[in-house]
């Protein structure tokens, strides 16, 4: 249960992303600065954490060993995750972005066949390709149904442009985030902890954020003081606290695709936290009865997902290659 609890706490802090990004858009801030400032502000906080734990040198050596791999999967896992998510906030309310983001629950499960795990057998270690966790996927679909129910009444008040630009970028982000996270877990294996991995991916993705910042300065000008402060809050709450908690949770279950899918499913609670936050901070109206039914479905799906992931589910795996370790 510890990975699930960590995942729920991560969802709470991740919800600040949707609330504050929407707040910045409503006050006239650009999505470009909402995205790039978060990661630029994350660097000093993460550096202090990793240096305090005396783990900076091993991280730098690990990054030096495979700089291209770090750059590629960090750009995908962080750049193609957060830039589209911030862009979507410019066209849709926080609840729509947070709700659509829950497709990452299914996206993560669908990515399973791209990864391998090593298992010990009587003949020696075997590399096996993971299959999509069908039972967990069914629970994920229940969560998405709940999210869909929450959005029904609101979707009718949105324009086609708001729906398209508020949804499509989030779908891209929903695949990029678990893909980058899982690939870096595969590359690092057990050599780095969650703090090191988050810092490493942040440093490796800096060229992307610096280029985006230059583009922002040339097209929309510099950010306001208000947007800078709110971006700093997003960096601390979502970029540092939430990301480290989530990476720690996924580290605890890496190699077990049903349990990994369950941890990723905890992000469904972002919808509940985002709705509450928009009501408290942005004075958004309270959800209707229909929305509360959707929230209940989300919670039932999450609890069910957690339960089935703790059981020993016989999953047939394709033996791909024998390899001595």
UniProtKB/TrEMBL annotation:
InterPro entries: EmrE. Keywords: Membrane, Transmembrane, Transmembrane helix. It holds the Pfam family EmrE. The chain crosses the membrane at residues 31-50, 70-89, 95-116, 132-152, 158-177, 198-217, 229-249, 261-282, 288-308. The keyword Cell division does not apply. The keyword Membrane applies. This is Multidrug resistance efflux transporter family protein. It comes from Cytobacillus solani.
């Amino acid at each position: 249960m510890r990975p699930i609890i960590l995942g729920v706490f991560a969802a709470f802090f991740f919800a600040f992303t949707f609330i504050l990004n929407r707040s910045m858009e409503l006050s006239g801030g650009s999505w470009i600065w909402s995205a790039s400032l978060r990661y630029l502000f994350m660097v000093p906080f993460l550096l202090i954490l990793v240096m305090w734990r005396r783990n900076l040198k091993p991280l730098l050596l690990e990054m030096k060993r495979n700089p291209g791999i770090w750059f590629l999967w960090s750009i995908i896992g962080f750049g193609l995750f957060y830039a589209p998510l911030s862009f979507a906030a410019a066209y849709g309310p926080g609840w729509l972005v947070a709700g659509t983001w829950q497709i990452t629950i299914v996206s993560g499960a669908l990515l399973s066949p791209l990864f391998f795990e090593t298992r010990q057998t009587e003949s020696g270690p075997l590399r096996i390709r993971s299959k999509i966790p069908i039972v967990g996927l069914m629970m994920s679909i229940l969560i998405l149904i709940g999210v869909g129910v929450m959005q029904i009444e609101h979707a009718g008040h949105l324009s086609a442009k708001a729906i398209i630009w508020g949804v499509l970028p989030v779908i891209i982000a929903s695949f990029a985030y678990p893909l980058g996270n899982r690939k870096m877990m595969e590359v690092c294996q057990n050599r780095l902890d969650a703090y090191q991995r988050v810092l490493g991916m942040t440093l490796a993705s800096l060229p992307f954020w610096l280029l985006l910042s230059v583009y922002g300065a040339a097209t929309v000008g510099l950010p306001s003081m208000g947007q800078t402060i709110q971006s700093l809050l997003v960096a601390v709450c979502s970029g540092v606290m939430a990301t480290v908690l989530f990476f720690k949770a996924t580290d605890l279950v890496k190699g077990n695709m049903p349990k990994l899918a369950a941890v990723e499913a905890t992000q469904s609670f972002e919808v509940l936290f985002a709705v509450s936050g928009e009501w408290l901070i942005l004075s958004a109206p309270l959800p209707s009865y229909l929305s509360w039914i959707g929230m209940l479905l989300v919670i039932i799906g999450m609890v069910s997902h957690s339960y089935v992931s703790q059981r020993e589910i016989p999953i047939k795996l394709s033996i791909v290659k024998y390899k001595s370790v």
